[in-house]
Structure formats: structure tokens, C-alpha cells
Amino acid sequence: MDLHNIGRKIKEARLGNKKTQQQIADECGISKSMLSKIENGQTSSAVATLSKISEALEVPLAWVLDDHPETDIVMLPKAERQFTVGNESMGYSYELLANRSKFSSIEPTIVHVTPKDDNLRHEPYTHSQEEFIYILDGSIYLLYDGERHFMEAGDSAYFKGTKPHLFVPVENKEAKVLTIFIS
Predict the structure, then answer these.
(1) Per-residue pLDDT tens for 70-112?
(2) Where in the numbering of this chain does the HTH cro/C1-type domain appear (predicted)?
(3) In the chain, N or C: fewer CB atoms in 10 Å?
(4) Structural domain harbouring 55
């Protein structure tokens, strides 16, 4: 999915909720200018920011990110899955594993934790959903609520997204993390 489609969906949901850009921006702790750029497809943003926006708009993150038609059953062959959404220069990209209704309460994704200069990494994120992660490949440090946890392929964790957290690749090598957001 491209940034224009993400922006279109955010704007559609915002207008449907009869909220202004300023109201959503204030609720999410971002500037009105940043929200405008996201809505216009002019910038990418962190998953946590998109999650906060989707929460403020009362729609799941997966609905914002996915442009496939909604159905009762979701079959998504690997060849049809959009490999990456996001910005590797920010230290992540991700792929949606299922197109779900905007009213679904579960959002499965694979987060690609990509190498980047640690000095450029941002502060840990928070969001309202609970989160389950399973390390598919590589290893990460899960920074969670001020503690650092080493995790490698096969390890899993379940935690509250309301606590500050961040995935950091070990030795600056890419890792793949199955992430399920649960509202």
C-alpha cells in the first residue's frame, strides 16, 4: 500500500467521525501539520503514530493500512501480500498478514526490524492495544518499560502497549517479528 492510500483512509475515517485535523492531532500528540502530511501521502510515520491515529479514529490499524476489499474469509497468498509498508530508514517496515474489517480487534503483521544508526532511533512508543510478538528470524532487544530483554527466533512476549516499548536489532542485523495487536 502506498502512502496516499493510507492518508486517504485516515482522512475518510476522520471526516466520518466529524473531527478536525487539530482534534485528532491533539489526541495523538502530533502536530496538525504532521497529520496533514500523513493524510496527503507526503510522509511516512511510525507504526505507533499510525496506531494512535487509528485509535483516535476508532478504526483498527490494519484497516488503515490495507486496501483489499473486506470479506468474511481472508486468504492472502504470499505472492499477493504487500511486502513492506513503512520506512526502513526509520528502522522498521512491516507487512500485513490479513485484511480484516475495520471493526476487527486483532491485527496480525510481520515487523521487519531493520538495521540503522542507533543514534537515530527514536524514543520507545506506546499505543492502546495489547501486543503479542513472536521472533521469526534474527534477534532483537525488546525495550519495555525501561528494561531491555534479549529475544531470539522462537521467543515470544505478550505485553501492554500502554507501556513504552521499542524493538532494536541485535548487532544491527535485521530481524523479523510476528506482531499481533489486540484491541
Answers:
(1) 556 666 777 776 655 665 556 677 777 775 555 567 778 888 8
(2) 10-64
(3) N
(4) 3-65
Contact 86, 92 (CB under 8 A): yes
Q: Under 8 Å CB-to-CB from 160, ≥6 apart: which residues? A: 130, 131
φ/ψ of residue 70, rounded to 5: -80, 140
Taking the CA of residue 111 as centre, how many other CA atoms within 13 Å lie in the half-sphere pointing to its CB?
A: 26
Q: How many residues does the chain have?
A: 183
Number of domain units in the chain: 2
Give residues with Cβ within 8 angstroms of 96, minimum separation 6: 62, 65, 66, 76, 81, 82, 85, 107, 108, 109
CATH code (residue 42): 1.10.260.40
Task: State the Cα–Cα distance between residues 71 and 68, nearest whole angstrom.
Answer: 9
What cell was used for 52?
A: 494512535
State whether residue 140 is helix, strand or coil: strand
